[in-house]
């Protein structure tokens, strides 16, 4: 019985399989150093909108802070919960926590009101989407690896 | 004075020391791609319990949301604090955040009341049950160079 399997060559699959020949290319896409440094994303002043799209997919989000909004009561820090949560403004602006959500795309943060500037601290999954099919140095579109215990 | 030490061959130790032959095996067990992408855990419907055990040890917990509970006032999103924190139900269900705690085992989340379904967003340390698990197929220990601080 064979102990090998063929996986599609996504970034996630290459990282899981950890074959030395492909890892270097995967880590180039991953930008591990940048990723582990964490990221603080400041939208700057933007047009009134209730959603902010992060530059990279988030593994986890530490906090989202509304800096400016036409709704004064929306200003302050938010716990970012999963996409099924109910969004809620802080009970007291800039004092207590509000609740925002992150979409299943791992990039879209939704606030209860429109905002014009937010600062979000988060850990990106990678500097490229995990589904991204890189050329991986011309290694092809699939990779055969040993199966795992 | 020697600059080598013998380490037990856990995933954590192998990743720290980064000896190429062992590093590849450890990274294979880490399942880095899965680890970075499977960051939302839904318990589904479970028996009423005040604790939920995550599948993998958590490096960081973004949020925990009680979806269903015998205590209606427990519903909503929670900040997950350290093991010494006192769990507190949301002041207003499904609106303001409550407080849950994570135990020193990095897997057990405790809520102020029993819950029957929870969604947790978190970053696992490893897509194996424990980062302290032995790396397989290499041996029980290995000698690695020590690091300068």
Q: Could you please describe the fold and organization of this structure?
A:
The complex is a heterodimer of chains A (149) and B (149). By secondary structure, chain A is an alpha+beta fold. Chain A has 2 domains: 1-31 and 126-149, no CATH class; 38-124, no CATH class. Helices cover 15% and strands 38% of the residues of chain A. Chain A is built from 3 helices and 9 strands. In chain A, the strands form 2 sheets. Chain A has a 7-stranded mixed sheet with strand order 2-8-4-5-6-7-3. The radius of gyration of chain A is 19 Å and the shape is elongated. The two termini of chain A are 14 Å apart. With 149 residues, chain B is α+β, with helices and mostly antiparallel strands. Chain B has 2 domains: 1-31 and 128-149, no CATH class; 39-126, no CATH class. Chain B contains 3 helices and 9 strands, in the order E-H-H-H-E-E-E-E-E-E-E-E. In chain B, the strands form 2 sheets. Chain B has a 7-stranded mixed sheet. A two-stranded antiparallel ribbon of chain B has the order 1-9. In chain B, strand 6 (98-102) and strand 7 form a beta hairpin. The longest helix of chain B has 11 residues, at 20-30. The radius of gyration of chain B is 19 Å and the shape is elongated. The model of chain B has no long low-confidence stretch (mean pLDDT 83). Chain A binds chain B through residues 10-20, 23, 59-62, 79-82, 84-86, 88, 91, 96-97, 99, 102, 106, 123, 125-126, 130, 148-149, and chain B through 20, 24-25, 27-34, 36-37, 39-40, 60-63, 65, 67, 76-77, 79, 91, 94-97, 119, 121-123, 127, 136.
């Amino acid at each position: 019985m064979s102990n090998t399997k063929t996986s599609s060559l996504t970034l996630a699959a290459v990282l899981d399989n950890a074959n030395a020949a492909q890892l270097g290319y995967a880590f180039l896409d991953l930008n591990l150093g940048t990723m582990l440094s964490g990221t603080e994303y400041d939208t700057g002043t933007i047009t009134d909108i209730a959603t902010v799209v992060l530059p990279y997919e988030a593994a986890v989000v530490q906090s989202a802070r509304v800096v400016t909004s036409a709704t004064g009561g929306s200003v302050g820090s938010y716990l970012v919960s999963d996409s099924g949560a109910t969004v809620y403004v802080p009970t007291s602006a800039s004092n207590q926590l509000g609740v925002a959500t992150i979409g299943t795309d791992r990039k879209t943060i939704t606030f209860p009101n429109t905002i014009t500037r937010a600062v979000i601290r988060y850990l990106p999954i990678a500097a490229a989407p995990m589904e991204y099919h890189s050329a991986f140095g011309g290694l092809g579109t699939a990779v055969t690896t040993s199966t795992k215990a | 004075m020697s600059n080598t030490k013998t380490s037990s061959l856990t995933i954590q130790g192998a990743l720290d020391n980064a000896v190429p032959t062992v590093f590849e095996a450890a990274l294979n067990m880490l399942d880095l791609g899965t680890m970075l992408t499977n960051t939302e855990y839904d318990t589904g419907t479970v028996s009423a319990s005040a604790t939920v055990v995550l599948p993998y040890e958590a490096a960081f917990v973004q949020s925990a949301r009680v979806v269903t509970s015998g205590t209606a006032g427990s519903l909503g999103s929670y900040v997950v604090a350290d093991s010494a924190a006192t769990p507190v139900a949301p002041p207003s269900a499904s609106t303001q955040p409550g407080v849950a705690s994570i135990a020193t085992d990095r897997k057990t989340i405790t809520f102020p009341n029993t819950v029957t379904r929870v969604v947790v967003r978190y970053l696992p340390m490893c897509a194996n049950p424990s980062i302290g698990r032995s790396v397989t197929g290499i041996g029980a220990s290995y000698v690695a160079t020590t690091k300068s601080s």
